[in-house]
Design goal:
Structural class: mainly alpha
Helix content: 55-70%
Largest sheet: 2 strands, antiparallel
Order of helices and strands: EEH
Oligomer: single chain
Number of helices: 1
């Protein structure tokens, strides 16, 4: 609001009206871009997590599969090494 007065006694308040689409257009575009980038980051991190989990667990699965086959063929030789771990305190 901008006050306007003159010598003839006019005492007006001047206001500027801007259409919402002109004002919010760039904001809405940036919001859509942010949502798209966040969705892409979520998808990539999910894929990366699944691939990492498979990479870590694959050797265990292969070992367990081989042990299961040995047990099924009655070639089960079980060697356990039990020890206590001492803490560094």
């Amino acid at each position: 609001m901008l006050p306007f007065s003159d010598v003839y006694g006019l005492n007006w308040l001047i206001a500027i009206a801007v259409p919402e689409s002109d004002f919010m257009g760039q904001i809405n575009k940036n919001t859509r871009t942010t949502i798209l980038l966040c969705s892409a980051a979520l998808l990539l991190s999910t894929i990366g997590g699944v691939l990492t989990a498979r990479w870590v667990t694959l050797p265990l699965l292969l070992l367990l599969n081989e042990a299961a086959k040995d047990i099924a063929a009655r070639k089960c030789v079980l060697l356990l090494s039990v020890g206590l771990m001492k803490s560094a305190n």
